[in-house]
């Protein structure tokens, strides 16, 4: 299955570099390019990409505002924020807007493409330079407008799913969860998939946020 990608960045050279690199990978396809947040929102509605690689700093409308409009508009597209900045406010703003990934431009281009694949598969991804602590602090902020779980959501999940959600909140991968709970990786994936459905979570990043909001994991000091 080919992952359809929309590139949104006000720097033509950045878009060109990603476009050329993506052309060498048959599982990825560029279906549109935008130089402003407004164009990104319009093209997302028009061409229906699977993943939007979105720069934060753009004219007319920034990437965070554009991401919020895309998510609130009901698009199935997942957004990967791409920026030269990795400060806390941008991370919080991007996640709050509904982004599924946050990457910095000094990453290798191949790593950026790997992130696109991860996000397209339904997982969330945060650049290594943006530590788990930042997600914990974001989730622990009382003003964070993260996608909230439905009232009584914990009552609707099994004890095993609760254990899995806790480990997801701690940043463990499916393989690590399987090892911790002594279950198969396939079973761990099934539990995570059920959590997506029961908690109405867009991706793994939002499961992490919900785990903190529900008090299953305590933000790091």
From TrEMBL:
PROSITE patterns to which the protein is assigned, alphabetical: HTH_LUXR_2, RESPONSE_REGULATORY
Entry keyword annotation includes Magnesium: no
Annotated InterPro entries: CheY-like_superfamily (IPR011006), NreC/VraR/RcsB-like_REC (IPR058245), Sig_transdc_resp-reg_C-effctor (IPR016032), Sig_transdc_resp-reg_receiver (IPR001789), Tscrpt_reg_LuxR_C (IPR000792), WalR-like (IPR039420)
Keywords, in A-Z order: DNA-binding, Phosphoprotein, Transcription, Transcription regulation
Key word Transcription regulation present: yes
MF GO annotations: DNA binding
Residues recorded with modification 4-aspartylphosphate: 55
Superkingdom as given in the UniProt entry: Bacteria
Residues annotated as domain Response regulatory: 4-120
All residue ranges annotated as the HTH luxR-type domain in the record: 150-215
Entry protein name: DNA-binding response regulator
Organism: Asanoa siamensis
């Amino acid at each position: 299955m080919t992952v359809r990608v929309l590139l949104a960045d006000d720097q033509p050279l950045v878009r060109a570099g990603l476009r050329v690199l993506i052309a060498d990978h048959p599982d990825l396809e560029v279906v549109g390019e935008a130089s402003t947040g407004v164009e990104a929102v319009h093209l997302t509605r028009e061409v229906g990409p699977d993943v939007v690689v979105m720069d934060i700093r753009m004219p007319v409308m920034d990437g965070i505002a554009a991401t919020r409009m895309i998510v609130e508009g009901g698009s199935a597209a997942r957004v990967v924020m791409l920026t030269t900045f990795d400060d806390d406010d941008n991370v919080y703003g991007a996640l709050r807007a509904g982004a599924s990934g946050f990457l910095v431009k000094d990453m290798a281009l191949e790593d950026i493409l790997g992130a696109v694949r991860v996000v397209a598969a339904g997982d969330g991804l945060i650049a290594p330079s943006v530590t788990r602590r930042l997600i914990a602090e974001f989730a622990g902020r009382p003003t964070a407008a993260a996608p909230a779980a439905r009232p009584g959501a914990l009552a609707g999940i099994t004890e095993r799913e609760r254990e899995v959600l806790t480990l997801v909140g701690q940043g463990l991968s499916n393989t690590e969860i399987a090892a911790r709970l002594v279950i198969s990786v396939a079973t761990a994936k099934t539990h995570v998939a059920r959590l997506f459905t029961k908690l109405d979570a867009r991706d793994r990043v939002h499961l992490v946020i919900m785990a903190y909001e529900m008090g299953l994991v305590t933000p790091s000091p």
